[in-house]
Amino acid sequence: MKRKSNDDKTMDDLMRATPAAIRVVLQHGMLCVGCPIASFHTISEAAREHDLDKDQLRRDLQAAIKSSNVD
What we know:
Elements: H1 11-17, H2 20-27, H3 43-49, H4 54-68
Domain DUF1858: 8-57
Pfam family, one: DUF1858
Protein name: DUF1858 domain-containing protein
């Protein structure tokens, strides 16, 4: 099944569904892994809170998701 990130998905949901996304999160200097707010923050909200380029974060997460998709 193909997975895709969307703005409704929380960081926690994303990392649980696609463990490869954890590496991207850490590479961007985000400490979402284990953070209690990760279950509430969407990708856009997390990017804003961490002062990151939302579009770049989304592209990097999408690449991680794509690389882990198994059809």
